[in-house]
Amino acid sequence: MDHDPFRWGRPRDDIYGKYDYSIANSEHYFQEHKDKYSEFPRMNTQEPIVTGTSVIGIKFEDGIIMAADNLGSYGSLSRFTDIERLIEFNDKTVVGISGDISDLQKIERLLEELKIESSYDDVNIEFQADNIHKYLRNVLYSRRNKMDPLWNSLIVGGIGSDNEPFLKYVDLLGVEYASPALSTGFGNYLAIPILRKFLEEKGIDETKTDSDNFRNIKEEEARKCVLECMKVLFYRDARSLNKFSIVTISKKNGIKLEKNLKIEDMSWEFAKDIKGYGNGQRY
Amino acid sequence: MAGLSFENYQRNQFLSSKGYAVPKATSTGTTIVGCKFNGGVVIAADTRATAGPIVADKNCEKLHRIAPHIWCAGAGTAADTEMVTQLISSNIELHSLYTNREPRVCTALTLLKQHLFKYSGHIGAYLIVAGTDPTGSHLFSIHAHGSTDIGYYQTLGSGSLAAMSVFESRWKLDLTKEEAMKLCSDAIQAGIWNDLGSGSNVDLCVMEAGKDAVLHRNYLTPNVRSQKANNYIFNRGATVVLKEKTIYSKLELVSEEVIISTPEERPEAMEVDA
Amino acid sequence: MSSDYSNIKDSAPIEHRFNPYSDNGGTILGIAGEDFAVLAGDTRHTTGYSINSRYEPKVFDVGDNIIMSANGFSADGNSLITNFKTNLQWYHFNNNEEKLKISSAARLIQHLLYGKRFFPYYVHTIIAGLDENGKGAVYSFDPVGSYEREQCRAGGAAASLIMPFLDNQVNFKNQANQPLRYLSLNEVLSLVKDAFSSATERHIHVGDYLEILIVTKEGVRTELYPLKRD
Fold this sequence. Notes:
The complex is a heterotrimer. By secondary structure, chain A is of the alpha+beta class. Chain A has a single domain, classed as Aminohydrolase, N-terminal nucleophile (Ntn) domain (Glutamine Phosphoribosylpyrophosphate, subunit 1, domain 1). Chain A contains seven helices and 13 strands. The longest helix of chain A has 18 residues, at 219-236. Chain B has one domain: Aminohydrolase, N-terminal nucleophile (Ntn) domain (Glutamine Phosphoribosylpyrophosphate, subunit 1, domain 1). In chain B, the strands form three sheets. In chain B, strands 1, 6, 7, 8, 9 and 10 form a six-stranded antiparallel beta sheet that branches. In chain B, strands 11-2-3-12-13 form a five-stranded antiparallel beta sheet, with helices on one face. Helices cover 31% and strands 30% of the residues of chain C. Chain C is built from five helices and twelve strands. In chain C, β5 (59-63) and β6 form a beta hairpin. Chain C is globular, with a radius of gyration of 20 Å. Chain A binds chain B through residues 186, 189-194, 196-197, 228, 231-232, 235-236, 267, 269-270, 274-280, and chain B through 106, 109-110, 113, 140, 147-152, 161-162, 164-166, 168-169, 172-173, 190, 193-194. Chain A: This is Proteasome subunit beta. Chain A: Non-catalytic component of the proteasome. Chain A: Keywords: Cytoplasm, Nucleus, Proteasome.
């Protein structure tokens, strides 16, 4: 690897030879652009580097609850343990982000920019959760069209333009969908079954979005269910952390972001009785 | 000769480069689980078999008997789980006859893992093995490469995470038989509803120490097909006859025999005391 | 070293780059009647072996008595429908609110699709409505804009399961002594329900709910039915 700060990370020509453009069938590209660009092809994000794992969300009586842990993983290394992945946009909108953390920070800055541009005295726009979702969806879809994606999956939650609880997903491809229970990443496999069972027991009709449909779900019950999911995720998702944040947005009480929560009531008692892997090992 | 032979590796590479790829066996998306309780062990499975996105069988059996008290749930390549279970079942029976002892679960486990390891993952069988023997009740899982695992509860297959979410949030020590059966069927249902590779019904098998294993085939049937709106019976003559040809000559009567049967005189009717 | 290198270079290229497409499952079905047309779709939204949402509608009333669905990669499907609606609004602005004919809508969609000929919208598109004579009309499109007016068409994941059933039951193919005739709305609706409940039985990406949009000269109305959820 070349450690020259201006060529950092590239293969050294004196060791590996000149970059061979025929590998990627990009000879023509090089010929056309060699005077304009550096001789190295432009590189877009091809894989996420520092990553955040699942975000989960669920609707209740008059609002939504979302949760995400505070870990930033660098491959299998738990590199950062204080990453806040629930982004407050205003008192009606929160964006939960998983995936690449540098792209998360880019999205954070885009949202800040949007907030500033919309807050001049003569503009006077008040964004609702569904507006923010549509904005981010268009950002992510146009970046995928440029083959230069923002490597994230997001859940936008809050109160929508119809003054009803809003919860919707969007990802790096621009794929979007809504559901009373949503999750990104590993939570799709581990948390969603728990959340859907909870909703089913509460008699929720997923084809209706009005808050009357959710009147059976009290905030405290929904919160308990989300805490349960975070525990299961910590048990089984190897890229998760036992430190997390929860955000609640309700029509009555507005936004409440709780940070530095710890997973409680874990049970590892049974582990001491499990020995070996099958054929009578003693330890 | 010890070890594995790789003599056909180059030939196979060459063939696949010429477009003769190894045919892909049908892999089943599946949810299978197992759970111990006080005095025994339960295993369960869904009953959907898939070939890509198509449901190949809506009510297949994924619970296999290895020995009367040792049962096994299989995920992965359908043919492999079936054949490897039959093979080990035979070997367990022979071993049991030879040693004149009840077969043990750990024997089945060792035979299975050694067989699978030998084929370094090419036999795509992912199994949950459970049963009772003179040493107690046992629950294991085996992966296709031959690694094994032990625990109070196990899940495998494409719905394993959905099923595991049930165990991780509701499992506790010292379950009763009924609690374990409920937990296993709920875990399978988590797979049925949330994992597209799993579906249809719940099969369940209870193995209790000192008792015969009980297979509950279609323990739950939560996915009965709804009544169709139309019936699709074609009118006679809907299929055009393009050509007619008779390929036998007229049948000739050779002999005639009349058999009179009266239902009252059936000899196999059971004698009930009057 | 150099021979290793040329081995890598000459072997088939290994794809290690961003894949801009995915498949979100679901299936759609359009049938034209004498004075009506229906376009139905299930509401299951999937990626891989997961259900993302059990109710994510994909058949829309896009205005001017036209219903539309673009099934396949849902991000492209949503964009195509949004673009169509925008174009329709511009058409109204420029033409004194004149109603867009369904044949013209079809031609517009061809251009929207072909405009991305070398980075296609990965969708199977179907629109339904009434033609200038008040007869039911269904148009279906391939991902790059080739289109045709048809009596019926299934699209998406279970298209290959439903289409032969439609050939037999709508166009009476392989049924001798069955004269071609228009089906009544009730006949069409029962065929649609049976097509979807059967596709749900055998295709893992189809299920949850069936949403049927019906166009008549009175306008567009919607019916919703449950499907199996496993």
